[in-house]
Amino acid sequence: MRHIQENINKQSDSEVHLNPLDSLYNKYISLKIRRDDLWQEVCDFAKWVEYEAGPLAIKKNQDEIWVDLDSDANMKRLWIGAVEDHKILARFRILWEYLVSLGIQKLCLDPRLEMNQIQDLFVFIKGREKALRFRGKKSRKAVSAGLVNGRHIHFSCANVTLQDTVLFVKYSYCTLRYSHLVHWFEQRNKSFRDHRVLFHMAPRYGLVAATVVLVPSVLLAGWYRQWVILLLLLIASLALYGMVYLFLMVVGSVEYDNEEKAYQLSRTNSQLKLYASRIQADIKRAQTIQQCFLPDTLKMPMCQLIDWESSYLPADEIGGDYFDIKSLDDDRIVIIFADACGHGMAAALVTAVIKATFQDWLETSFSLENLAQQLNRNIYFTTPSGYFAAVFLAILNGKTGQLEYINCGHQPEPWILHGTNDGINEQLDQARCMILGIEEAIDIQRARVALRSEDGILIVSDGITENQDIEGNMYGQERFEELLRKNATLSISQLAQLITREAKSFSEGTDIMDDQTLLAFRIK
């Protein structure tokens, strides 16, 4: 979808506008198709866009509603920020068959579109169906040729663009003829944009209008001695005075309201910009602080014995993943890999609790069980209910290759990357414990495994294995393990780069839903 959107951006900025004859032709088509079953489905679909899909997209802060069809006019997918249940659209079968017959299989709609705009869209398509069915032939009409050639067609306050089988319909604000007239008048009489001028002018202009009518009438009535007509004209002059006076006062009141609304809007906008800049500055500072939580890959302990590799990609500016490696003595290092629930600022605060607890534990270095219990208690007592973290803990003896570990709910479980070329990788699944922060006290299980020369460990957050593509399909652990099997001979650096590239490629065109973090090492 992204490459289609890029093609649209490359199109010329010039728009094709409907001339009066085109508009008249659309009116004729609109009257002609109102008895068809297709028109009833168009009206129902337009109602669904305005009252169901549009509000849902706006609630999700999405700018697009995608409707995908297959070549047999069956509903393939409904996307409003995420995959939605498309069965609700199955009832528009006649409409889908009509679109597919014209070579249109995807609709990208703006959530701000209204019922009448959707209806006008299909009236417009109906009037150009011949050009759509025979796209290879040149059309004499500029609008039909522009539509087939992918140019922006502007009508009914919307921009319509056809790219291959995708029809893009974007809401476009347009100034009405009456607004043009008002703007032209205000440009020539700038004082009319001030409500005070209108209030001051109301009695004067009313008096001028009454005088213009009354003076000639008095002269004529006096000349012909028509006193009844004179009385009627006098009453008419007073009524005209009142009408002009009221008109200018009403316009002045509307202008006054507009000025006040513009002032309040401008003030609110300035405040929002100020708050947004402050929040962005705070987020940048928090991002800088969180980056300091993570170790420098080039300064990892035991680099002479171990090759290290890591990557960290938060879903937002700051994330809820955290890892660290510290030396306990000349032979041992401790590894912590944590994934706090959610992402963003709240999850980052949980990682701060984990970081502080880990630093405090390093000063005593009792045991992994003690570290797990401290982490659990601190998360349980310092965060609200519903906040938790999955944590993997390990102590590695670099000389003997003994790895002691505890897994407190971290998924997927870490893999042992064997140095042999058989492509068989085990998971560290012998020390499963409860996730941290749910209960005040938990049972801890610990396990050991012996690593040989060229063996390694790979730890990834669930943001990688549960990564989603633009269709909403999950990458999945099975596919990830297949990737590991096929690339067992790669160095740890090459493998880490491959995994990050694969994750980025799989989710291309979408926003990542969760933090994606990787930590890997291999004994030299």
Description:
The chain is α+β, with helices and mostly antiparallel strands. It has three domains: 2-171, no CATH class; 179-278, no CATH class; 296-523, 4-Layer Sandwich (Phosphatase 2c, domain 1), CATH 3.60.40. Helices cover 48% and strands 19% of the residues. It contains 15 helices and 19 strands. The protein has helices at 2-10, 20-32, 37-59, 93-101, 115-127, 129-133, 142-148, 177-188, 195-224, 227-293, 345-362, 368-382, 462-465, 477-486, 492-506, and strands at residues 15-17, 65-69, 75-79, 83-84, 106-109, 152-155, 158-163, 166-171, 306-313, 321-327, 332-340, 389-397, 402-408, 415-417, 426-427, 432-433, 447-450, 456-460, 516-523. The protein has an eight-stranded mixed sheet, sandwiched between helices. A hairpin with a 2-residue loop joins strand 7 and strand 8 (166-171). Helix 2 packs across helix 5 (115-127), helix 3 (37-59) crosses helix 4 and helix 11 (345-362) runs antiparallel to helix 12. The longest helix is centred in the middle third of the chain and has 67 residues, at 227-293.
